[in-house]
Amino acid sequence: MAESFKEAQRTYTGLLAAAEKRLLIRMARRIPAAINSDHLTGLGFVPMLMAGVSYALSGRFIGALWWAVVWLALNWFGDSLDGTLARVRGHQRPRYGFYVDHVFDSFGALFVLGGLALSGRMTPMIAAVVLIAYFLLSIEIFLATYCVGKFQMSYWGAGPTELRILLAAGTLVLFVKPMVTIAGRSLPLFDAGGIVAAIVLTITAIVATIRHVRELYLAEPLMSRAGGQGLDHLTDNVLCVAE
Questions:
Q1: Are 41 and 77 spatial neighbours (Cβ–Cβ below 8 Å)?
Q2: pLDDT 10s digits, 160-203
Q3: Which of 65, 71, 180, 239 has a CA that sits 20 to 30 A from residue 217's CA?
Q4: How many CA atoms lie within 13 A of 54 on its CB side?
Q5: Dihedral (C-alpha) 94, 166, 174, 201: value to the nearest 10 degrees?
Q6: CA angle (166 as vertex; 130, 115 as ends), nearest 5
Q7: What is the C-alpha R_g of the chain?
Q8: What is the pTM assigned to this prediction?
């Protein structure tokens, strides 16, 4: 079964993609042999939990926001480098790596948004909406990876790295401007950012769904009635047996 598995084509067109790829390859070649991709995957996962804890604590201790930024940087290091290290060393495990990476990413999003909600820096309802929108786009991406054979890692010039930088920058802005005014109404900075994020993620999921539905429809057109009579007859027989 392993021999018949075909890895999906990876598409990453983030603004920093080319420079990041070169940097990661150079870093991977300098990683000690005792460290493998599983260690880096763990290093990518634990910091997301700690980032959520730091955000949650920041409601009482604003200095915890510095730790949140540090944990986001460590998450980038582990999460971005694990796959590169496996490819550089020729130790790819495409199914295992894909599954573990993205299950951990899903939990990571839960940790971060949960921490923001607990801190009071983002309204729990908005945090929940952002999480739902994130999962909606993730589900679309994972289904397209299986059905279309393309793993889309970025949209609109933004991928995981760009989003981490944006989140870290917003975290630093909290020190000087935790509230913003929109249309005469004051609201938390991360509420405003969360609303924008939820809208963009949802629109992206809808656009990607429409594109992939069309692509799959054209790849698997309906059979003509004449050509499909045999299949219809077979289906009727199967239904009769089932009844």
A1: no
A2: 899 999 999 999 999 999 999 988 889 999 999 999 999 999 99
A3: 239
A4: 18
A5: -80
A6: 50
A7: 22
A8: 0.85
Evaluate whether 91 touches 36 at the Cβ level (below 8 Å): yes
Between residues 113 and 231, the one the model is more confident about: 113
pLDDT 10s digits, 200-216: 999 999 999 999 999 99
| Alpha-helix residue ranges (DSSP H) falling in the chain | 17-28, 37-57, 64-89, 94-119, 124-147, 160-173, 189-219, 229-242
The Cα–Cα gap between 24 and 142 comes to: 24
Q: Give the count of beta carbons closer than 10 Å to the beta carbon of residue 104.
A: 20
Give CA–CA dist 74/70, Å, rounded: 6
Residues pairing with 98 in the sheet = none
Instruction: State the Cα–Cα distance between residues 139 and 133, nearest whole angstrom.
Output: 10
> Which residue has tokens 């990453």?
12
The angle at the Cα of 205, spanning 199 to 210, to the nearest 5 degrees, equals: 125
The pLDDT of residue 237? 45
Q: DSSP letter for 155, please.
A: B
d(CA 76, CA 164): 8
Superfamily of domain 2-242: CDP-alcohol phosphotransferase transmembrane (TM) domain (1.20.120.1760)
Give the separation between CA 42 and CA 153, rounded to whole angstroms.
20
Neighbouring residues of 218: CB distance < 8 A, sequence distance ≥ 6: none
For residue 123, pLDDT over 60 is answered with yes
Q: How many CA atoms lie within 13 A of 131 on its CB side?
A: 20
